[in-house]
Amino acid sequence: MNLNFWLPVLMLSSSFFTGLIIFFLKETSTRLRTALNLTGAVFKVVAVHYMAYRLLVLDHIHQVSFSMGLGFDFVLRVDFLSLMFLALSSNLWLVTTLYAVGYLEGSPNRSRFFGFFSLCVTACTGIAMAGNLISFFIFYEFLTLVTYPLVVHRETKVALEAGRTYLWYTILGGVLLFLGVVWLQVIAGPLEFVDTGALEALGPDQHNILRVIFLILIMGLGVKAALVPLHGWLPVAMVAPAPVSALLHAVAVVKAGAFGIVRVIFDVFGRDFAGFLGLLGPLAVAASITIIFGSLRALSQSDLKKRLAYSTVSQVSYITLGAAVIASFSTVGAIVHLVHQGIMKITLFFCAGNFAETLGLHNVRDLRGVGRRMPITAITFTVAAFGMIGVPPLAGFVSKWYLGLGSLDGGSGWIIGILVASSLLNAAYFLPVINALWFETPAKEWKTLRPSRFETPWMLLVPPIFTAGTALLAGLFAEWTWSPLGLARQIAFGMGVYP
Prior knowledge:
By secondary structure, this protein is mainly α. It contains 20 helices and two strands.
């Protein structure tokens, strides 16, 4: 056994055993719990960067395989695509951990929260490194189980009702995904993600069955990816604490669904074969409907977190849309948006949490003049919101630019209209918030709930500064080799879909 074996195992262990230990800590063990959280998170970041060096520079593939004795192997494999998701989850876990420590200071049940918080990241890490559909499914359902306690953390009636809704949706999605995985296993045998193109060897008499299996898989994954009409759980789950909302929208649940859809298209069916079967056109339409629907619903939301939730419904579907267009630029746009949407959306939820925790503000109309009281938080919110709209030179513009180029290159010019309409709708629901923050007169005197020498406790202030700065730098230095765009190009090249 060598580093190719141990690094993937250590990646899982760093958060899994951290979570198990934290469960048994007393509530008063604040320093030890924080130290364990941050140590595990820092280790994962270092390990991911080392794995990236070994893969991108030394061309070393990390893979672990265990026979399950049931006709399939449990496989962990770090390829180009999984590396992007690993980098996103590990880096944002570290930032969110710092934020969560400050956010939950003095709250009850912190050991339970951070235990499941660490297990949630373990599930995301496993999803990223899964080498076949069976392994992916195991971690995908594990994610459902460990995120439920986070959604219902406050144990209020509303939280418990939201948790039930979340479970109904995600369990239904899991059942559909399991059906598709088993059916595919029966007709094609065990398929690893490196076996792209294996389904093409099946005869034409199997093509209709493959179309049905594809639909079932996409529906199963579409629940977590919040494709319309499978999105209903997401706005309801906003009852969760702000760190959970940030994790769900930027790293964990919705990204797991979108990542799974990309895997199915590229690594199970193969993009060209899926196009030959006529599967990608309808998927692009479904993603486009979701993009417009989510934006329209965001317009009518007065609660800031719910407005951001419907924004996520819209924005995450850019990934599905890009993956469904047979063009190299669209593929790059889909992959890079996996990261860009994460860093922008987590910034917005950090800011929403700061407004709520510091001043008790949840409604958009209550944010009038808050930029004068919390200027740093308001600046970071503004940067992330402009990025979501697609204003250059921010990260969101880069994603939309590549998606637009891909739509023209792939002969799907109608997608340009979707992107333009989406950007206009993004502006329609973000600009009123920005206007309220900076240009409207405060309606009342604010009562500070969390006194601090800064505008809010520093642990709540540093994370949005970091992520907003990253969103800006990712756009300004997009052409740099090691930027998210540069890595997305290398990943698409490694997948054989970029010149």
